[in-house]
Amino acid sequence: MRILHTSDWHLGRSLHRVSMLEAQAAFLDHLVSVVRAHEVDAVLVAGDVYDRAVPPLAAVELFDRALHRLAAESVPTVMISGNHDSARRLGVGAGLIDRAGIHLRTDPAGCGTPVILTDEHGEVACYGLPYLEPALVKDEFRTDRANHEAVIGAAMDRVREDLAARGPATRSLVLAHAFVAGGEPSESERDITVGGVSAVPAGVFHGVDYVALGHLHGSQTITERVRYSGSPLAYSFSEAAHRKTMWLVDLGPRGEIDAERIDCPVPRPLARLHGTLDELLADPSHERHRESFVEATLTDPVRPADPMARLAERFPHTLSLVFAPEREDRDDSLSYARRLKGRDDQQIAEDFLAHVRGAGPDPRERTALREAFDGVRVDEALHEGTSRRG
Asked: Where in this chain does the record put each Calcineurin-like phosphoesterase domain (predicted)?
């Protein structure tokens, strides 16, 4: 059986306020073309279909079109909800959609009830474990501890119990949305540590032939049988070096695994540039990033004038500007009170400006500060005089 494993679509998400809907639509076009070209037998989507619980209408419409296109291919699709999704909303109409070959698994109580897929070698039991928030599902699974390992372990016990009641030739797939130990996170996954220690050992999934994971955005092989597909698009600059792919997995008649990565289209590459403004504007090696989404970290000791506008002349798709001046830090061993001792309000304000900007005020700014403090003192004097007369 040939399986296409994908996850973390995050439909409706933007990158530094730039809409990704067009790129997400292009990815879904690509997914359908891969299903056709590689004669895929089943598609697995391991959670975070949407980016938030109440997605924008454009994202819902994009998802709706994707479901219709996958159903039209007559290729079974199994989806679970992730921590970004609203399980209740995503699961609306699941019973009806099921008839079209689109199997939404969003209810934790159904973890031990598989979707049965078939090929020339027999049955494949496909179990969907939606994102399991420990505090919300511990009663369902009757666990003593409200943490991720406990509830996922209990869900997998149900999977193994059901699988044991089936014929010995039955092969098995599991979809799960979790942080599995050994995985490498990026900055764009929402933290799931609220329910206790978030990482679960890969061994919790023992006894099944393939585990299609979602949550981490980098494609990763935890073990031969436990893998993350990663997100199809980069959703933060921490993912700039990621190769965005899906897993094409061939499941043999005795549970053998043969997996290869299928590249996803890259609408615009991401680049993280570091240096002074003049270096970034002049370095010829950066020419290849002219059409990239750019995060620029400026190391100028003094914040340059109009840095974003000047960067945009060379890199029109600059999205993020970070200021990290390379200069010797002041002696932080002195207490705040000692650093302020003997200094008036004007000097304190000028020191603060120098600290955050890298240079003190120019004459015009110094005059503006002085006039502001003089105005405050006049107001205070007038207020005090009025109070005495009262």
From this structure: 1-218
